Amino acid sequence: MFPKVLAVILAISPLCVAQVQLEFAPASGPGGSPATFSRVIQLPGGPLFVGSTSAPSSTSSTTRTQILLASPPLDNFVYPPAVGGRGNDVPQDAGVDPKGNIWIVGNTDSDDFLLVNPIVAQKVPYRTAAFVLELDPSRTKILFATWLCGQQSAPLGLARDPYSTLGTAIAIDSAGNVYVGGSTDETDFPTTPGAFLTKGGGYVSFSGETYYYSFLVKISPAGKLVYSTLLGTGSFVCSGGSSCIGKNSTSASVSNIAVDTTGSATVAGARNTGPGYVFRIAPDGSRLLWSADVGGNYGSVGSLVMAQDAAGDVNLLGEYAPLIHSPGDFISDLGTPGLFAAKLKSDGSALIYSTDFGQSPDSHATGVVLDASGNPYLAGTSSSAQFPMLAGVPNLGPDFVLRLDTAGTKALTLFRFPAGILNLPPLIDTQGRLLIPGSQASLLTIPPQYHFDTPAIIGFANAASYAANSGIYPGTLVSLFGFDLPLDPRAVQVFFGGRPAPVLYAGPNQINVQAPFAGVGPIQVILPSGSISLDQPYSRTLGIFTADGVHAAALNQDGSANSASNPAPRGSIVSLFGTGAVWPSNLQDGAIATSAAPFDQFQSACQAFEYGGLMPLLYAGAAPGIVNGVFQVNVQVLPTVQLTLLYTVPLTLQCFGLSSNAVRVYISP
Description:
The protein is mainly beta. Helices cover about 0% and strands about 40% of the residues. Mean pLDDT is about 85; it is low at about 1-20, about 235-250 and about 640-655.
């Protein structure tokens, strides 16, 4: 334990050299509903989160989805003007033009979406359309708002409207022209004369399928349509006779758009099957300058993200799935997904490099961003043993940011994070700092040349479920993740809102603590070299401890550990352990529970489910012999392998039903 004098000195002396910064924007809307953010953009005043939250509907008892803007710090809500309509308005991408105006593209089913000087002023009622929205730099005035969609009615006799248009990507050139990409299956999606492809998409009654084409629309700084073209991506073997003529894609997506100094746009995306694609379109939208298939040698590419450098070369990160062939060489299924990185020459003629990062079930391509030298930062998720590693880099989990050299032959920088720390494409600010958006509206800022040599907190989680950036609730066991932390728990002090928290474990990359029963607040971590302060959101989560991330750290009825070699007999009782319950406020922090104490049913209630079915729950309460804050539930197992614990407090408005992480237990066959 620190001497008291030293603790006081450190408490008032922030760690000035702690260059890595973790901050949070508000993760809920004005009414307290959780927010879902789709993009973070860099403004002169700092980063801005663009997303949506649920709100009460003004026309029914249901809820709607409304646009939400937020920025760090935690208490800094950014309320946009009355945008959108009374339906569901969901942003997908955003950008900033040379004047500082904010452009947002997304999807809406609002029939009363607020339009300003629109290009398309009508849509089919209740149908989902793409929208494009421009706000002034203060976010208080709508400068432009339009739908992008067709007008053809749905075929008669159908139970649902098969058509929709989706906006998914946006880019802005140096002159302020805006390029919007997405997908549509509307046969009358508005295109311009002389465009590369003017007809496509639609519904085929013979097969009941819709045919999505990707599209690219260019809008001038004044909000006028410059061109609109479809991009017929992919191929499809159609058995519907003449009704299939002209339909060459069952689905197509646009993930990213880049624009060069000539006004030529590069579009990257994926199809329903086969390789990903990259197109470069002439400045007037009349033709493709070139097109290239990417990743087909790895299998079917499910997503493809990209960034274009100053020379016009295209840096790519893709998610693939190997094709599994059955006898007769028919493709019967897709295998375990994987990731690949590639770089395409500026004329699309060949790949400069292509590297397989290996396969893992959690593989996901999140984004690509380039530094000032043109080196790509690739961001995503992978647990593959084949993924590149660098000496001295702590492996904290499957999320990664990897910087390669321009030749793609050398890994220059690598960060590995717990799952959920990274969930949106990264950015690089004007100072060259790497900005990593994560769950709960978190933003992790890492300066150039950081080498894991300065103490930093990069995230936290419920210590049982490892749900990222959540679990700050009285009594809950919490894991703090970071770099260059002390090895000795005695060299660490942690405070929640000024209250000391018991330190249960300390290592170079993780500190486990128990949040004080008396209340929580901003976190302060006191180290020998100084202190790190964190103003974080408070959220209650329910977690079940696991032995390996999948199987519960459970005890069989005889008190032995549940395992593959020691499964629980059918009909027997299994004890599971977790954290995140509601506890009496008079419990002592860090004390060991000496006896069983059931939860007060007026405060909390537990139910155990097996594949959605209710299981017999015999006990829910304190775990004798384990630190306060860990609960125990005893359930009677059925012949199944998956258990999910549902914990509800229905009488408290702020404590609605919570679902734990899904776990598995071993049961005798």
